[in-house]
From TrEMBL:
Keywords: ATP-binding, Ligase, Nucleotide-binding. One of its GO terms (molecular function) is ATP binding. This is ATP-grasp domain-containing protein. Residues 134-324 form the ATP-grasp domain. InterPro entries: ATP-dep_AA_Ligase (IPR052032), ATP-grasp (IPR011761), LAL_C2 (IPR040570). Coiled coil: none annotated.
Amino acid sequence: MADDQRRTDGTRPAADRPRTVLLVGAGVMAEGYLHAAQALGLRVGVVETPTRRAVLADRFPCLVDFEPVDEAAAARDESWLAPATTLAARLRPDAVLGFAEPHVLATAMVQHRLGLPGPGLDAATVSRNKALQRAEFGRTGLPQPAHRHTRRLSEATDWALERLPVVVKPVSSQGSQGVERVGTPADWADAVARRDTEGPLLVERYVEGQEYSVEALVHRGRVLFTNLTRKETTGPPHFVELLHEAGYGTDRPVLRKAAEELCRGVVAALGMVTGVAHLEFRAVADGEPVIMEVAVRTPGDHIMELVGRAHRFDVFGALLLLALGEEPAVPDGHHPVRSAGSLFLSSPGSGTLAALDLSGWADRPDVARYDARLAPGARVRPAEDSGDRLAWAVLDCATPDALRALAAELVNGAVVDLTDDPGAHLEAV
């Protein structure tokens, strides 16, 4: 067992017992960790809501313990620390791993207290606050948009009007929640009227350019592996992500090199130690990336599954080994085997969802999995944040061209029936 797995009391777990992982948060996209844990012979304790735990209990024999989180408070960072600490005291885990945004700080605190591998308290804290990110990236000279952190939106009026278009975003959120492009003085006045009392906000100069992300595995401050993902969004004003294409950039060496260098700079700026980094950026040109934000947790939208499919390795298993203090064997990231993507369907209009027909997505060999996100009866609208999206599919194709063609076919083949809307029967676009 690696030295950085030694507990703070100097002891090590007995060599003859299975190692134990404490998983803070176990949503749908965390199930890859549970499958990998079973394959590695690990025991797992989870901190989750009772409803979610009930879904997992019979499917994953590796689950050996559980500590509940209040359903109503599960979206708040502070809800996870007490149960994570309680379960850690009971299990004395060999590794602690957090899943989504609300789990990052609690996980980092437990890792720190137990002397176990993780991104580190500095990296975790900065990743949960976009204003802190801007300060740290500014301090280290990394490329990012001009910006202002403001208590009230109206206080940034003079600065913003001189730099339109700008983007307004909360300092701590995910899934495009509260992200809005403001293009004209009239739009700014409207945003101020709606959001002036919302609380601290970040106002950034809008950067025109294609959106990408880098997914990196980091061991003791060293980047072991990177994947480049291309994104398609709804565009302004909300930029909700509708397609992720992993394993991108084999024919764009300048872009790929710039993305890797930017990622290493971000990891260094955060003082990140071990784990996964998810860096989002826009590229003004292939050699000119500009940071949007970074997270030190599993990216959403099935991206980690896409990374594994594109590069043909168990990325969840690799992250478990990192959490255990080991250095996993990983591909170089430069030669993806497949083009993997996640597709999301946005409503063509506002109204009540009467029916969603995804039968055209069935029995397609390159569609690995798919499902609806919203059920008939839900009020829907063209996506303004990730929660508005109607359905998703994971695609596994031979080439990027095949992936994009399939994504277009699936969108055109889905039928969305809306009521309370002038054209009730509309094809999704």
